[in-house]
Amino acid sequence: MVAPSLKLQDLIEEIRAAKTQAQEREVIQKECAHIRASFRDGDPLHRHRQLAKLLYVHMLGYPAHFGQMECLKLIASPRFTDKRVGYLGAMLLLDERQDAHLLITNSIKNDLSQGIQPVQGLALCTLSTMGSAEMCQDLATEVEKLLLQPSPYVRKKAILTAVHIIRKVPELSNIFLPSCAQLLHERHHGVLLGTITLITELCERSPAALRHFQKVVPQLVQILRTLVTTGYSTEHSISGVSDPFLQVQILRLLRILGRNHEESSEAMNDLLAQVATNTDTSRNAGNAVLFETVLTIMDIHSAAGLRVLAVNILGRFLLNSDKNIRYVALMSLLRLVQSDHSAVQRHRPTVVDCLQETDASLSRRALELSLALVNSSNVRAMTRELQAFLESCPPDLRADCASGILLAAERFAPTKRWHMDTILHVLTTAGTYVRDDAVANLTQLIAGAQELHAYSVRRLYSALAEDISQQPLVQVAAWCIGEYGDLLLEGNCEETEPLQVEEEEVLALLEKVLQSHMSLPATRGYALTALMKLSTRLRGDNKRIRQVVSIYGSCLDVELQQRAVEYNALFRKYDHIRAAILEKMPLVERGGPQVGEEAKESKAAAKLSEAAPVPTEPQASKLLDLLDLLDGPSEDAQHPSPLDPSPGGALVQLLDLPCAPPRPAPIPNLKVFEREGVQLNLSFIRPPGTPALLLITVTVTNSSGGDVTHFICQAAVPKSFQLQLQAPSGNTVPARGGLPITQLFRILNPNKAPLRLKLRLTYNHFGQPVQEIFEVNNVPVETWQ
Fold it and tell me: Which of 238, 358, 415, 564 has its CA 20 to 30 A from that of 256?
């Protein structure tokens, strides 16, 4: 005899009355024991009640797998009360991972063939919820027959089940094409909405279906026009908009059908203009229809005036009080800025106002769009706005804002002085947030503008005297003072206010940087080198400089100690060549990374080759070693191979004449990554004269419809190699084949071992973060043999 058990309502009340989790588990375990006993006794009259209680227990997160077979028994029962609970249990307890779900295929097939609409609805719901590919293949024919049933109730569920079947088995798409054409004449909005959803799924998964339904674009246009022109309907209107759900779904389907198809696009242009101008925007339902209309206009071959209208709608969205609407407007404008730049530019003041949003996501999107709107004609005005935002923006946006301003200034700077002032302002305001290459870019800019040397050193000296906490600023200022300290002391710059600086003040400021607890080791290295260079530029005694340098000869930081020891050696042993070694840096030509690095390495190889034939003189040999120490770490220095003893060969290498030996055959490029239009290619160069060195240029292109932002490429090589990563040309790749990102890898392979690379890519694409880690093992053999 089965012990009496609780009713479902009593079970729910008792579980809710439990004060602790232990009491709840006790109630559930006791009731599950009653349910198991009832299942074993095979009580057919109360089986559905026991399963209903078990389903509630399952919804609370407790195991209920022992009720799976009872679901099958209830589904096979002729009673509707049993079938209802059985199908519900199958949807909750069964899935594709369990073989038991296949046992209900025959029961679903039998129920679909019956004429009882509630039973057919239960079977269709179950199939669309947990039907596997095998079940869909077996039951697709029955579902296709129900698509044209007289009852709208059955047709709606059959259409949604057909959507599930297509997603599981795309090969079955063709059997639903004839039915869809007939269902488009349906007047029932629920059936029509399901039909549009089914056609959309077919077009996305089958090119043949896409071509088939491009013929019905006029019919879809007429349906949407009827919706737009129809007056208020109690049954379908929401906030004064006639069935916005159906309108949105039709617009999405039109966007798919009109993409890359001129004829279909022309058929819907007039309708899209009518929807864009007549839809009420006072309620959210109208905004949803308008936003979908904008997306459709931008994806098809629409007229220029229509695209301007779409951008203006997004501009009105920016003035909406709803933050969600403003966010989607910013995201959409960011996608359109590449293709419709002039139209988006009209809304620049509104976009700039969005920078002051309190919502972090809105201000971030406004920042990205503002940076994308910068061009050569508005760079001054936009930079002022962005600099003002940089002073007050949240810390998590400061790095992106600073990097964006620096990139915009590098691309569109009207003058070198304006460019330098802009970078200096960014370093002063948010120096700790800028990218690592900002220091190198500014020093290169200053070195290349000879007419601004005096102006630059004075501006940087004044900024350094006010604040030594911004490390990139301190590094640039120290470099500039070391290079052009003589111009700082002359005091004859006409572009700045008169500034009288004494030698002792300059030395004291650099010593303050060296002693500051805020200075990084790299910053101290810049300051120490600046002091050393000032020893050849100041007219006074170098005793103070020698004292400071000697102090850091026992510094705990190995890099700083090594510099100090080398500089002390210059004072003690090589004082006669100190001025030549510490002369001003030569001008570095700013070209493509590949060409610039190749030329640099070739010249370095030629200089080393000139010095190699004279190892017999000890003084020259020591000087060569000392230069190696100054130029780079001694353990990484590669000794050059001996020269050809023939006088002709020496003359050719000395003069670097065109009659030098021919360059080796080019190494083929290699594509190592491609995802959603983002592609990464590697090109290789081995500079002549340094066979152990390999230059790899990484080129990132973007053919997709969305920008790639915050791109970072990191690399690793085996321990027998030496890898140096140069700064990339940027961190944003514009959509649709915009300016690519390039980055140079310098790899030293002294053992000529096979090259293996491990790359990690991180970037944002279509608003989603992406991270990829992969190995490159198919590098051409010409790179190391």
Answer: 238
